[in-house]
Each structure stands twice: as structure tokens, then as C-alpha cells.
Amino acid sequence: MTESPLIGHNYLKPPENEKIPVVVLDFRKMYACWLPGLRSTLYFDEEPKTDELKRIREIVLLEVFSVDSKYIIELMPEDFEHFKTAYSLFSTYGGELYFYRRKEGRRMKKYFDFKPKPPSKTDIKQYKLEKLL
């Protein structure tokens, strides 16, 4: 177990269906636990072995920068698969990566959307070497 666990704060929670552009800084697999006395979520690199912590689950912690500050997004494994698809398109083609949430049943599901950059509209002039010399 890590000596000083990461304490969860500064979550990115946009209103439903509002797309927020994000820049991914880092992501890593961790264990999330609820500490009732502190009333906060703690994140560990290894699974904690204590009875004080509740709702221990394996998650992917995504650190992003959006508009004005650095945020964290907690992703479940199925959300992370959706993120990997959008991120692979982003890393291949460039453009922008958007994060949004949508209500499904009683829960807000996390989604990522990829928007490719528009093609550049520069005119390419063709010259024959004979005319240049």
C-alpha cells in the first residue's frame, strides 16, 4: 500500500450532454475506497487490507486539463474501453477530445467523443522546375 494515498477532489462533472474539451495528462489503474470518517474517496496503487474503508473497487484514474484547471475523472473498466477507442482516434488523427456525461437509468455514464481537426485550406501551387530556373 502506498504511504500517502491520493485523496479525491476536483472532479470534472459537466451537466448532462454538455461536451467539455479535455487534454489527457495521465491515466493509471488504482483502487478507489470510501473513507467514512474523512467523507472522501482515497486512491491506492495496491488493494488496501483494512476494514475501515468501504466500497473498494478497481478503477482507472484519468487526470485531465480542461478549460481552466486540472481535474480527475474516475473511470470504471467499461468506461475506460470507450475512452481507449476515442483516445486512439485522437492520437492517430489529431483534433479534439471531448468529455460528457449522459444519464442512463439512475446513473450518469461517462463518454468521450473525438472531433477530427478540419482539413487545412491552403492552396498548393505547382511549379515546374524549368520555369523557376
Structure characterization notes:
This protein is of the alpha+beta class. The chain has one domain. The protein has 2 helices and 7 strands; from the N terminus they run βββββαββα. The protein has helices spanning 77-93, 129-132, and strands at 6-7, 20-35, 40-44, 54-66, 69-75, 96-104, 107-115. Strands 1, 2, 3, 4, 5, 6 and 7 form a 7-stranded antiparallel sheet that branches. β2 (20-35) and β3 form a beta hairpin. The protein is elongated, with a radius of gyration of 21 Å. The model has no long low-confidence stretch (mean pLDDT 82).
How many separate structural domains?
Answer: 1
Structural class: alpha+beta
Ranges where pLDDT stays below 50 over 5 or more residues in a row are none
Taken in chain order, the helices and strands follow as EEEEEHEEH
- N- and C-termini, Cα separation: 71 Å
| Biggest sheet character | 7 strands, antiparallel
Classify the helix fraction into a percent range: 10-25%
Oligomer: single chain
- What is the number of helices? 2
- Overall form: elongated
> pLDDT average, as an integer?
82
Report the radius of gyration as a whole number of Å: 21 Å
Strand content: over 45%
For the secondary structure, the number of strands is 7
